[in-house]
Structures are given as structure tokens and as C-alpha cells.
Design a protein that fits this description.
Belongs to the Gfo/Idh/MocA family. This protein has about 450 residues and is of the alpha/beta class. It is about 30% helix and about 20% strand. The strands form two sheets. The chain has a nine-stranded mixed β-sheet. The protein has a six-stranded parallel β-sheet with strand order 3-2-1-4-5-6, with helices on both faces. Nicotinamide-adenine-dinucleotide (NAD) binds next to loops.
Amino acid sequence: MRANVIELQTFAVSEGALVPTANEARRRYAVVGLGARAQTFVDALAGPYADRAELVGFCDVNQTRIAVHNRWIAERYGYAAVPQYEAGDFGRMLEEQRVDVVVVTSMDRTHDDYIVAALEAGLDVVTEKPMTMDPVRCRRILDAAEKSSGSVRVAFNYRYNPVHEKVREVLASGAIGDIGSVHFEWLLDVRHGADYFRRWHRDKANAGGLMVHKATHHFDLVNWWIDSEPVKVYADGKLFFYGDENGKRRGLARDYDRADGSAEAKDDPFAIKLAASEKLRELYLEAEHEDGYHRDQNVFAPGITIEDDMAVLVRYSSGASLSYHLTAYSPWEGYRIGFNGSAGRLELLVRENTFATPAEEQEHSTAVQHGDAKPGETEALLTIHPLWEPPQTLLHHELGQGHGGGDARLLESLFGDGDEDPLGRSADHHDGARSLLVGLAANQSFETGQAVDVSALLAQ
Ligand SMILES: NC(=O)c1ccc[n+]([C@@H]2O[C@H](COP(=O)([O-])OP(=O)(O)OC[C@H]3O[C@@H](n4cnc5c(N)ncnc54)[C@H](O)[C@@H]3O)[C@@H](O)[C@H]2O)c1
């Protein structure tokens, strides 16, 4: 087995946008997994980046969802229907359509198959996070990437939020000296947080639980911000709020499996109403006949195998430590971070709303799409506290839409003109693995109660 630590130490510093050179024709893109998130990429490729990109294939287990995307881009951009393929015909699509780049936006547990197949065909890959969801799959991707002439970009949009870029800039400038520790709390509210317990994410076998599916963003940010390698992880996690037993014990549970068509769900603040949102109705309710997938499951029904309250302690190769907490049942959504340095402290507060309103009241708004903060209620406050000096406010303003403005900037980095990227925002498969391994180690620590060596995970 190779020395994984050495392999993971490679750090991407150049932007490497997936743009054609002056002599190249438009690059040919295929998208696999045409659900909600795919829209960000499909819209960009069919719209603002259509002069340098061509959509040549859509692939999914569900053909109804593909047809919805095709109709949307026809309506919005007058785009001709993109050829559609069944999941089993992915390889045929790559050949028939002479694909250059594959965009992976399918369910997490399927990412590795598509990434590896594309890399083996020598193609470039843009994959949504998490890059994958277990150590075996992660190893497969790292091996395939090593042998391939193709590249992997992991779409860590949080790096491209200007507030997060500022944090990276301040830390890299040495303004707070050497970093001794990071304290990081992320709160998902009872609307967005609850959504993980309604969908495929509720089963750990699909996405590795929130330590992998969600916290991969947060661990990636810390790895990037402090420019160091996670070495050891100890964690404690539990299902405290959602699930049938918790729901019954606290009198929150209603007796239904899925909300659509259920009288019990009508006034349940935890129920989502698919029929009331055009997007949710088209993408999921009207696509159920193909795969039987229910996107509106009861968060207090049986079958949940993921945690909703997780505490993690990470030791880094630099000697810094991270104490991290993820809560998925909070009244408000946002995060607080403190960096303790030898010359002072950097503090960030991001508030995406002041309180969550019941899902039912959100039914006609875009709030069902994650990444949308509530205008008028948001706040980003970054302060520096040098030793022996008064604190200074580095920024204080409202948040941008689309993951704090990160989505649009990520798309420009992927599909627009590549730039110098002095902050090293561009993330490759090593970054994807590094962030993933913290979550996987945390999952293992939940089970064993022991601290886990991160590098040992890939050796198993
Ligand atoms: N970076 C972000 O901010 C962000 C936000 C949302 C989602 N995501 C990521 O995007 C991905 C998709 O999430 P989503 O919210 O769109 O979920 P979704 O359920 O709306 O879409 C998933 C799609 O994958 C398809 N699929 C399932 N099995 C498949 C298979 N074997 N082959 C091909 N397609 C298959 C489903 O039919 C569905 O169309 C996930 O990996 C998620 O982590 C990232």
C-alpha cells in the first residue's frame, strides 16, 4: 500500500478552468444525475457559458427528470434537446457523444462509478461534493486519477464565497500568527436540517451521513483555511431529535410515511409539500412512477440511520486542533468560527436567517432550494482581535444568494477564463479525499469510541 499521507499532501495552486484553448472547439459536456443540483451546472452550460461549452448528454436512472431539464433549457435558452441516456448506458454515451468533460451530480454513493469510468476514458471530471462516501470508493478514485490523463475538480462552492476567501487571505497573511486551534459550530435549522431526514440522505448507505454529505464542505474549508493535513479524529454522534423513537417520546411524531396525500401531514411543520412547488412537483412527484423515490418522507418515521448531532475533535499535521459541532435541528441557520493564533484571534459569524418558518409556509418560495439565505435576516461579520489591541471589523454585510455568492464564482472558475487563483480555491481529488477522510474517520469513531488515524483509513 502506498504512503497515503504523501499522496494527500499535493496541494492545488493553479485554477485550471475547463476552458477550450483558442484552437479548440467548444468542449463537450455530459451531466450524470439530473436532480435539483444539476440545474446550477446545466443552466450555466446552456446559458452564460454556451459559447465555450456544449451539452451533449444527460444520464440518469430517471428519464422523467432528464426530460424536465431538457424542457427547462428549451424554455430558458431555446436549447435543443440534449440526448438522454439510462444509467447503464453511461459508457455508450461517452463514446457516442465524444464527451470531453463529465459533470457528476448524481446521488453520492454513485459518484465513484462515474468518476472512475470517465477518468479511465481519459476525460475531465467535475464532481459535486462529497467526492464519494467511503474509503474503498475513495481509493478507487485516487488510483484512477493517478493513471488518467483526465483531471478531477471537486465543486467546493463554499471556497468561492467571498467571506470565506477573506478568511483564507487573513490567515495566510499571518495576521493572527501561528494557528493553535479552530473552534467551529455549524447550525442547520429545522427546515433545511430536516430536509436531510426526508430524502435519500436519511440512509447512511447513500451518502455516509452528515459527517460526509454535509461536513465535507466544512472540513474542506478548515483544511484549506489553515493549509494543513488532518491526522487524527475523535468524534461522538447521535440521532437526538429526528427519528421515530425521538419523535414519539417528545410528541412530535405524526403517523404517516410520506407527506403527499396524507391528512396527518397537513399541518405538520416538518412536512414538505411537493405538490405546492412547481419545481419539486415536476422533478420528484411526477417522476415517482419510474423509481418509487419519495422526497417527502416523514422525519419522525423509521428508517433513519444517520446522526443529527455530532461533535468532532481533529488534530492537524501543523499541530493545530479543530473542535467542530454540527447540529441539524436548530431554530436558526448559520455558523460561528474562531481561529486562535499566536498573535490574536479571528472570528466569523454567518447568519443565514434568524429563525426557520415551517416548511408548509415556504412552499411557494425558493427557500426549498438550499443555499438561499433569507434576505433582510442575513449577516456576515468578520472581526480580528490582535493581542493587546482593540478588535477591528474586517467585514460586516448581508450575504449573497446561491451559497453566499459562491455558486456563481465557482461556475466562472470552472467554465470561464481561468485566472491565477492566488488563494488556491480550485479543489482536486486530493482535496476531495482530505475533506472526506475527516468525516469517514468521525463515522468510524462514532462506532468504536476510539480516535482514528486518518491515513490508516485508505490502507484498510
Ligand atoms: N455543493 C452544494 O452546495 C450542493 C447542493 C446540493 C446538492 N449537492 C450535491 O449534488 C448531488 C445531487 O444532489 P441533489 O440535491 O440534486 O439530489 P437529487 O435527489 O435531486 O438528484 C440526484 C439525482 O441522481 C439520480 N441518480 C440516482 N441514482 C443514480 C444512478 N445510479 N445513476 C445516475 N443517476 C442517479 C437521481 O435520479 C436524481 O435525479 C449530491 O451529490 C449532493 O451532495 C451539492
